[in-house]
Amino acid sequence: MPTSPRRLALVPEPHSGESLLSWVDALARLNQVSRLHALRLAGFARPDAAGYRPTVYFGAYLTAETTTRVQAATGLSAGRQREMLAHYADSVLPRFPLPRPQRTAAIWLTRLRLALTSRSRACPACLRENGGRWLLRWRLVWSFACVRHRLYLLSACRSCGKGLHQLNPGPADAVVCGQYDRSRQTRTCLRVVSRMRAPRLSDPHLLQCQRRLDHLIDHPHDGGGRDILRSLHVAMEDIHDNYDDAPPLPDTDAVLHRRWHGHGGALWYRNDPLLTAALVKIATAGGLAASQDTHAQADTASWSTLLSPGTGAPPANRFGGTCRATACATWVPPGQGHVVKTQVLCPAHADHVITPGSTALIPQRFT
Fold first, then answer.
1. Other beta carbons less than 10 A from residue 147's beta carbon
2. Each residue of 293-307: pLDDT tens digit?
3. Which residues in 183-211 are b (16+ Cβ under 10 Å) and which e?
4. Which of 87, 208, 211, 278 has the fewest Cβ atoms within 10 Å of its own Cβ atom?
């Protein structure tokens, strides 16, 4: 006969902006047990599930039954659990699909390419200061730097090269890599993440970009932030898909140039904050002017200046992109060209799809 989980005496207080997996690690450290044992003690597994093993997509969705068990065992309300789990769902991320979201949420997030489901980026300095708490924001595709410490985020262990904060039955210490490492006799990487050295962010334009992105992520309904973030993601994907036609990386930090040219393309940028930063640099500043003067580049504050709904005016091209017209690979800088359903068109082809004095489309003239 199944029994209810016992109420734990030692339960950590969630850190502001913390992910659910990070809180489980804090619970494990406080009770001096392994991560897997902490998951069981907290009620994430049914009391009769002796062989419980979390999937690699743990944290994408929790059932009502699970949240009830966790609340009974830890006192953590269902609302706080969902805040650490999916705080950005239905804000910067769309709402989880229905029905049966527990089976589709992780796959859906992966297809969106807006969030990392099985790993995280991290600021080592933040981990040192907050006691090893991992922020949920670090899993979003728009997070490439820490504006407080002016560091680029890390996405892989400096020792074994494996992804950070992945779900596995590892040690209770969340700041230890703990991944399987073939190069070590112990087969386990014990590199401390909080002691890893992250590249310094010196580019003032990228610093301002990340500061603005952080604000939009936390306040997506202010000034149309959700639409701005989606537009930037479309621009980043456009550069990713049309790498050969995109403009070169503008003047920025040397570490970005080394990573960009050494990579030979923009593949897998979600797993690399440096490549993400390079894409953001190109999309927000590349092609505006030959001068690298700050005033000649894209003003990130203008991201919040949106057209009011119902004005009939066409959407603005806030970020750069490749023209989507047939057989046209022209790069359209920010503020130029036209946007049709998130697709960027150069000025030459925009005239063919928009009738004078109207926003009516002629769909057979573009792809």
1. 17
2. 444 444 444 554 433
3. eeeeeebebbbbebebbebebebbebbbe
4. 211
